[in-house]
Write a structure and sequence with these properties.
Layout (H helix, E strand, L loop, with lengths): L2 H19 L10 E2 L3 H10 L5 H12 L3 E2 L10 E6 L21 E5 L2 E5 L12 H5 L9 E8 L15 E2 L12 E3 L4 H9 L1 H10 L1 H26 L5 E5 L12 H20 L4 E5 L8 H7 L3 E3 L10 H8 L4 E6 L10 H15 L5 E5 L9 H8 L1
Parallel strand pairs: 1-2, 3-8, 8-9, 9-10, 10-11, 11-12, 12-13
Antiparallel strand pairs: 3-6, 4-5, 6-7
Helix pairs in contact: 2-3, 5-6, 5-7, 6-7, 7-8, 11-12
């Protein structure tokens, strides 16, 4: 395939994905891939490629996928974050920058893979007064250079920010081939629980509402201002704005829908309004059973729901399509918890066919793994999704 043919291929697949997002008739369901760094490396070796950063485009073409997605965006290697120039918090690097909130990321190793958690030693766990909140060292937007960007991705092993290539705003331009995206430190629920501690935060939302309102308000104000400055810089060049906030479990939300609507929804709404000023698609990542607030996401202008964790209660695609299929696009849908690592390739192909028949050319779906594919998944099972 020539370079010209390759460009034509990706232009066609981007159009296919946009048509599906907008619920236009499509001749087939677009397929996306996302995997843990260990799986990415295994696939790179399997196909005889060199490394994921330079060869991710070749990889998805060889697999038969249309897109290399990230958790809350459609571009694992085309999602951009402004360069951090603030104080050194002496923590390990992680692309979400939770450390600017005083949260200490901690490395863990499980199943042969490396991960990072943020829930250990919450900085506000023992700080119960409003005065503590008012005197807390919150981040400042001045800690970021909105004229210089770096790729923001968990698709490869965490690297030092100093090792990543810097991209001046002057180099940005719209792409006919790929989705250019940003995701802007907008994990409002997660930041609040990591700062306060999940148990204390959940109690505050019920019994100390003033404390909760001030803390969430301070977080929301920063996230909104960050969003405004970020989009003022690159909003006209990109396609999609990603939001990631995990506030659901397998069975239900971690908080009641009413509490979510009171404390958190107003901030998401303001952020989404900023994205819509630039005519951006909005993808919202929420794991677990979030069906109770999907109508709210639709009302706020969310275009794509990720990850469609079909193993969670009420999150089966047949249920989601019946209830919400005309108003939002689903991103994911193939279970990586109980199905993909353990099924046979034939069973996986049959599941893909079943889903294709369910959507029947209607659009409204970007099909792929419900989360990053993990190291315990056989390569032949992964390829069965796309071949």
């Amino acid at each position: 395939m020539s370079n010209k043919d390759g460009l034509r291929f990706v232009m066609v697949t981007k159009t296919l994905i946009i048509d599906s997002i907008k619920h236009k008739p499509v001749d087939r369901i677009p397929l996306m891939y996302r995997g843990d760094p260990s799986i990415n490396e295994s696939l790179i070796k399997y196909f005889g490629l060199e490394n994921i950063e330079s060869d991710w485009e070749k990889l998805i073409k060889k697999m038969g996928a249309d897109n290399f997605s990230d958790g809350e965006t459609l571009g694992a290697f085309t999602t951009y974050f402004p360069k951090y120039i603030g104080p050194d918090f002496n923590t390990i690097f992680e692309p979400c920058y939770f450390n600017i909130w005083g949260i200490k990321p901690v490395e863990i190793y499980s199943g042969g893979t490396r991960d990072i958690v943020f829930s250990k030693n919450p900085p506000l766990y023992d700080s119960d007064s409003i005065n503590d909140l008012n005197n807390y060292r919150y981040p400042k937007t001045e800690w970021f250079d909105f004229n210089t960007y770096k790729i923001n991705s968990e698709a490869f092993e965490y690297r030092s920010a100093d090792e990543q290539r810097e991209i001046p705003v002057t180099e940005f331009k719209k792409s006919d081939a790929y989705f250019l995206c940003t995701n802007c430190n907008n994990y409002i629920f997660m930041i609040s629980t990591y700062m306060r501690g999940t148990d204390k935060m959940l109690i505050d939302l019920v019994s100390d509402k003033k404390y909760a309102e001030i803390l969430i308000g301070n977080i929301g104000e920063f996230c909104l201002e960050f969003c405004k400055k970020n989009l003022e810089s690159i909003g006209r060049y990109i396609d999609l704005y990603g939001i990631w906030d995990d506030f659901a479990m397998q069975d239900s939300l971690m908080i009641s829908p009413e509490i979510w609507r009171t404390f958190y929804k107003p901030w998401y709404k303001k952020i989404i309004e900023e994205a819509k000023k630039y005519d951006l698609l909005v993808c919202f990542h929420a794991c677990g059973n979030c069906t109770a607030i999907i109508p709210d996401l639709i009302q706020m202008g969310v275009d794509i729901l990720d990850p469609v964790q079909v193993s969670a209660k009420n999150m089966e695609l047949i249920n989601l399509k019946r209830l919400f299929g005309k108003d939002i696009c689903f991103h994911g849908g193939i279970d990586v918890q109980k199905f993909l690592p353990f099924a046979t390739p034939r069973e996986i192909k049959e599941e893909v066919k079943r889903i294709e028949e369910l959507f029947n050319g209607d659009g409204g779906l970007i099909l792929g793994p419900s989360h990053y594919i993990t190291a315990d998944t056989p390569i032949e099972n992964i390829l069965a999704i796309y071949k």
